[in-house]
Design goal:
Number of domains: 2
Strand content: 25-35%
Largest sheet: 4 strands, mixed
Number of strands: 8
Shape: globular
CATH superfamily of the largest domain: 2,3-Dihydroxybiphenyl 1,2-Dioxygenase, domain 1
CATH architecture of the largest domain: Roll
Structural class: alpha/beta
CATH class of the largest domain: Alpha Beta
Radius of gyration: 15 Å
């Protein structure tokens, strides 16, 4: 089977807050958005230079896809390539982004911050 990876989807608790985070922190742009038949909402975000999409999914209580967040789910992660890992890390920290793995405590290139829902974001050089 031939395939091409198209997007990664993550569940978010507050769609507006997550859109603001990814557009401000990583310069992503809204490419598409809509409402699913069960009442959930989705937003596709993109960055220049890639065809990859990040799909943010929000599900209302009562939807067959709604599941309460549980401790430990924040270990899902996304990776963003940046020009300078330490400069990106410092910039994100100044804007209030929470740390998952500080560069001082990382082994090799393991530098992670957290999005508003606790999902880890890996910064790659």
């Amino acid at each position: 089977m031939k395939s091409r990876f198209y997007y990664a989807g993550i569940r978010v608790r507050n769609l507006r807050r997550s859109i603001a985070f990814y557009t401000k922190a990583f310069g992503m742009k809204v490419a598409a958005q809509g409402t699913m038949p069960h009442g959930g909402k989705y937003v596709h975000l993109v960055t220049p230079g890639t065809r990859m999409r990040l799909e943010l999914n929000w599900y209302p209580k009562g939807s067959r896809f709604f599941v309460p967040y549980r401790k430990g789910e924040e270990l899902d992660h996304l990776a963003f390539v940046v020009g300078d890992v330490l400069a990106a890390y410092r910039s994100l920290r100044r804007s209030g982004v929470r740390v998952a793995v500080d560069p001082k405590h990382s082994k090799g290139t393991e530098v992670y911050v957290k999005d508003p829902d606790g999902i880890w974001i890996e910064l790659l050089g």
